[in-house]
Amino acid sequence: LQPSLLKGMLASLEELVLHPETMTLDFSESVFMEESVGSNHSLERLRKHGVALCLDDFGRGFSSLSYLHRLTLDQIKVDRSFVATMVEAPREREIIRSILSLAHQLEIGSIAEGIETLEQLDRIREMKCHFGQGFLFSPPLKGEEVEAFLAAPPAWPRPT
After folding, report:
1. How far apart are CA 47 and CA 156, in angstroms?
2. In the chain, which residues have pLDDT < 50?
3. What pLDDT sits at residue 28?
4. 109: β partners
5. Are 74 and 106 in contact (CB under 8 A)?
6. Strand 131-132 and strand 109-112: pairing?
7. Would you state the pLDDT for residue 38?
8. Which bin fits 104, alpha (ψ -120 to 50), beta or left (φ > 0)?
9. What is the pLDDT of residue 67?
10. CA-based angle 102:108:115, to the nearest 5?
């Protein structure tokens, strides 16, 4: 919603010598709540520069589906509230399955948020979710901790 954001982000990428294709911008549905043409335009311009766009907390808002036709998205994140109860609640599992099916049909990447147990990871893998994030993999890290984390072998089971 800030007109200078786009210019600042592109300048930062150039200054840091980062290729825009290496960046994904996560944003929530609240960006669209005011039907702002300006925010849609800024996001589309970032995407045209190579920045990937990811709609965060998908399924949590009142009208997540309406955003899929307003903007070309690269990824959607399944909200953690569904993942948290998916093992014991078949209804949440089916909601996740439906969201992932929609993502596959629209050729949009998918990320499941809030994975904390191996059972959740197994279920998410069975549903062919592209990526997962959560405390099972790592707590939030400080910048200086990221390099060591990435260099270490994963502590969770890899798919066979």
Report:
1. 33
2. none
3. 81
4. 75
5. no
6. parallel
7. 62
8. alpha
9. 66
10. 80
What's the length of the chain?
A: 160
| pLDDT tens digits, 57-81 | 887 766 567 667 777 889 999 999 9
- 121 Cβ contact list (under 8 Å, min separation 6): 115, 132, 136, 156, 157
pLDDT of the residue at 33: 59
Whether the Cβ atoms of residue 20 and residue 13 lie closer than 8 Å to each other: yes
- Which residue, 78, 68, 65, 67, is CA-closest to 131? 78
* 110 to 45, 107, 116, 138: CA distances (angstroms): 22, 9, 17, 19
Model pLDDT, residue 160:
61
CA–CA gap between residue 32 and residue 132 (Å, rounded): 25
For residue 100, give both structure tokens.
């992932």
Give 94-101 contacts, CB < 8 A, sequence gap 24+. Answer: 95/59, 96/124, 96/127, 96/129, 97/127, 99/58, 99/59, 100/127, 100/128, 100/129
* Dihedral angle, C-alpha 46, 56, 40, 3, nearest 10 °: -70
